[in-house]
């Protein structure tokens, strides 16, 4: 049975997850915004990073729209057995997508246990 949670409650989980990120990382995050959407339009994803990773930016990087990290509410709640499991999945997803902002790929995240 999926977890039932209002959008504001879910957004609070995302906010809590962002608070878990060490300050030394959040201080260097640049031109990135975190969004909550109900679901991806074509795929079943928990989250998605879209942008130019910090490790790929060159002197030509300027004037770009912000990178986006989107956390998808419906799939996370549908696959969570309770609120605590949803909280843990949100935290894992937020950390995973922020890692992409820092240039860490899926293979390395899998090795680190954040796949």
Commentary on this structure:
The protein has one domain (7-53, 64-112): Zincin-like, CATH 3.30.2010. It has five helices and three strands; from the N terminus they run ααβββααα. A three-stranded mixed beta sheet has the order 1-3-2. The relative contact order is 0.23. It has helices spanning 7-19, 23-26, 73-78, 83-101, 106-112, and strands at 32-37, 47-50, 67-72. It is an alpha+beta fold and 115 residues long. The mean pLDDT is 91. α1 (7-19) packs across α4 (83-101).
Protein topology:
Elements: H1 7-19, H2 23-26, E1 32-37, E2 47-50, E3 67-72, H3 73-78, H4 83-101, H5 106-112
Parallel strand pairs: 1-3
Antiparallel strand pairs: 2-3
Helix pairs in contact: 1-4
Rg on CA atoms, Å:
14 Å
The assembly state of the depicted protein chains is single chain
Which sequence of SSEs, written as H and E, runs from N to C?
HHEEEHHH
Count of separate structural domains: 1
H/I helix tally: 5
Please count the beta strands (DSSP E, at least 2 residues each): 3
- Quick one: overall form? globular
> What is the CA-CA span between the terminal residues?
24 Å
Order of strands in the sheet with most strands: 1-3-2
Feature tags:
115 residues, alpha+beta, Zincin-like, three-stranded mixed β-sheet, 5 helices, 43% helix, 14% strand
Q: What would you say about this model in short?
A:
The chain has 115 residues and is an alpha+beta fold.
């Amino acid at each position: 049975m999926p977890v039932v949670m209002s959008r504001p409650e879910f957004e609070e989980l995302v906010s809590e997850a962002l608070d878990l990120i060490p300050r030394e990382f959040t201080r260097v995050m640049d031109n990135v915004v975190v969004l909550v959407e109900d679901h991806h339009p074509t795929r079943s994803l928990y989250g998605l990073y879209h942008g130019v990773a910090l490790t790929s930016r060159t002197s030509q990087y300027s004037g770009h729209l912000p990178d986006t990290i989107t956390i998808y509410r419906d799939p996370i709640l549908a696959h969570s057995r309770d609120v605590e499991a949803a909280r843990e999945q949100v935290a894992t997803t937020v950390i995973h997508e922020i890692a992409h902002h820092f240039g860490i790929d899926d293979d390395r995240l899998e090795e680190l246990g954040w796949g």
